[in-house]
Amino acid sequence: MKLWIDAGRISAERVFGMSLIERHLKAVRHQKLQLSEIVIDIGAGPMPVWDEEPRLTCPVRIVTGSGDCGERLKQALAQGEALLVTDAASLADARLYRYLADRHGSCAVRANKAAIARVEPTDAAKILSAPTLDAATGNLEEVSQDDFPAFVAKLRRALPYYLFSVTNAALRRQTEKFLFWSNYKGSTDFFTKYVYPPLVWMMVPPLARARIHPNTVTIVSIVLTILAVPLFAAGHFWWGFACAYGMSVLDSVDGKLARLTFTDSAIGNVLDHGLDIVHPPFWYFGWAVGLLGGWAAASGMAPLWQAAWWMLALYILDRLILAVYRAKFKRGLHTHAAMDAFVRTFISRRNINLPLFTIAYVAGWGVEAFYFIVFWQALTCAYHGARTVWILATFRPSTAGSV
């Protein structure tokens, strides 16, 4: 199979710093498609450019041709190989490349005056003479949203496929906003969902345009995370809070940046998710030591010190309980039903505990807040345990619901 890109109709707009042709090439690489060739058909237009070599595993060939989009597509089909086709003025959901490549027979996705399709050479007669790809593929079977596997495990939700024509600045801004919000997880905490997004949005587009790699953001986040621990322990809570909230925002930035620019990597996932799992107990111990007045008091039978150890034990137990559901159903517990997604908004997690502790500390109730956070972690653990037992007793992997 080849990828054929109609670049006779090309857009000068850049979405998150990338031309639309570059996005097509990176989406193909991201989906690990096995293609014999990528053909960019510029018709009688100018040579396309992209800023970064996409490091593809197949050759890229630029060709010129006469006629409209439909006529040039028929010429490409005459070579006898199935084609995955799109155009240089559209932005397609990256999942569509894999979905169409794995289908059998000709079919198309058309929306917002854009199109992406799979065309078999035997269906060349169905291609219409037309200036745009969406019109040229008008006779092909259309893929419906009901046929498309919409659930995205990393986002913990179902995301219908999308397709846009990006031909002017207004459409580009609209598309960028959509892509940004579509990359938020379906089940997450209150602050990530409602408080941090404006800050994350202020950072992601300029970082993407500057070609800053998300791993760079993750490294800065790691530094802030580690630095917060001794600051908390030394009683410098305001500086510790600055580092902690900075890390919390950057924790959203690196993931969005990676997914929106096709720069996610195995090492990045390990660093990001490993940091998310490992660091919270260190912050909690830092809070306890800081509240106690230093390491000298953080030992023996001090109730607050014991509470920190209880927090660690409950935190580990909670993670182990969640791992049971994931092992059985191959996704997170909070994707099981709408109730679980709702509960995820408020359960004991870093982005909930941190603001609770901050507000209480300002009010002079830091110690009381710490005990409450331990109690909240215990309730969270109890909910996850009871919910997991109930689900395992009443559901099977093939029938588990989703949000």
Task: Give a brief description.
With 403 residues, the protein is an alpha/beta fold.
Q: Key terms for this structure?
A:
403 residues, alpha/beta, Spore Coat Polysaccharide Biosynthesis Protein SpsA, Chain A, Four Helix Bundle (Hemerythrin (Met), subunit A), 2 domains, two-stranded antiparallel ribbon, 15 helices, 53% helix
Our count of helices gives 15
The CATH homologous superfamily of the largest domain is termed CDP-alcohol phosphotransferase transmembrane (TM) domain
Report the average pLDDT across residues. Answer: 91
The rounded Rg comes to 25 Å
Overall geometry? elongated
**Secondary structure: number of strands:** 12
Low-confidence stretches: 398-403
Annotated CATH topology of the largest domain? Four Helix Bundle (Hemerythrin (Met), subunit A)
State the order of secondary-structure elements, H for helix, E for strand.
Answer: EEEHEEHEEHEEHEEEHHHHHHHHHHH
Helix/strand class? alpha/beta
| Intertermini distance | 35 Å
Q: What proportion of the residues is helical, as a percent range?
A: 40-55%
The major sheet is characterized as: 6 strands, mixed
Strand fraction = 5-15%
